[in-house]
Design brief:
alpha+beta, 3-stranded antiparallel sheet, disordered N terminus
Length: 287
């Protein structure tokens, strides 16, 4: 029967919600070095606990493009009006309506005094002073020419930049490793799901399936509900309740079968199931 309510239906290897200490420590080490408080190579700037929430969208204006045409800098990412905008890091939100050429603007002040800023919004979604976690939705994108909140934008996109504690606008990609991309998961090799695999999964589900929680590598009901929504594409017909059971995992195995998994579609995730799934989740488009 669909909608089985086991905790996860994973028996052959470690459960994604019950990882053992060694797996968590290994995954957390990778996460700490390559994703969260990112270590920079040859960059004098401070490493910040931020990520690029727009890496899945085409860049239509680089930092240098903005400088070359005389602006203070920024990065433009094309996306349709109404796309949910995740916080690049945890912090406190300030909404600035009709902020000159930037239009509706959201500023997130992080604990270290740095601020990330999003411009040309079509809608604010949280009130001033609201605390958000990394990956939490702060507004909806806009930018349609002439629309309220678009400022001087001539087409749908979000304009993103970082402000130092001293008030200088800087390129956020200089402050996060790997050009802003999430690291690849080692689950593709070892078949052991860990935080990095789940971060990439959450980013995929953010892009495709309406996930609005943090990109923290810790799956919970919101992650699983988004996974179930996506698994409708792979034959899942049970409830969207955030409580995955064998029918959810059988759909994941069907996805994995398109990426090299050759085992049974039995709803019991093991190392080979996770390897196939991780070959999919390691694709560059989910960075």
């Amino acid at each position: 029967m669909h909608g089985n309510h086991e905790a996860d239906g994973v028996r052959k290897d470690r459960s994604p919600v019950g990882l053992d200490r060694r797996t968590l420590l290994r995954g957390s080490a990778v996460f700490g070095l390559a994703a969260g408080g990112v270590l920079l190579s040859g960059n004098p700037a401070q490493a910040l606990d931020i990520y690029n929430p727009f890496s899945g969208y085409p860049m239509t204006g680089s930092w240098q493009d903005h400088i070359d045409r005389g602006s203070l800098g920024g990065i433009d990412y094309a996306m349709s009006v109404g796309t949910r905008l995740p916080a690049a890091g945890a912090g406190v939100v300030r909404n600035i309506p009709y902020n000159g050429t930037g239009g509706h603007t959201v500023t997130i002040t992080h604990s270290d005094g740095y601020r990330t800023q999003y411009m040309h919004l079509s809608q604010f979604l949280v009130a001033d002073g609201t605390s958000v976690g990394k990956g939490g939705t702060v507004g909806l994108s806009g930018g349609a020419a002439g629309a309220p909140g678009s400022g001087n934008s001539t087409g749908p996109h979000v304009h993103w930049h970082l402000i130092t504690p001293a008030g200088t606008r800087v390129n956020p990609l200089d402050y996060i490793g790997g050009g802003g991309a999430l690291p690849k998961t080692t689950t593709e090799e070892d078949g052991v799901p860990g935080p990095v695999m789940w971060m990439r999964t959450q980013n995929w589900l953010r892009i495709e399936s309406g996930y609005t929680g943090p990109i923290d590598g810790v799956p919970g009901p919101n992650t699983y509900a988004a996974l179930q929504r996506n698994m409708r594409n792979w034959g899942y017909t049970g409830p969207i309740d955030g409580v995955p059971g064998p029918n959810t995992w059988a759909a994941v195995q069907r996805l994995a079968a398109s990426y090299g998994y050759t085992g049974p579609i039995d709803g019991v995730m093991g190392p080979n199931s996770w390897r196939g799934f991780s070959r999919f989740i390691n694709e560059d488009r989910w960075d």
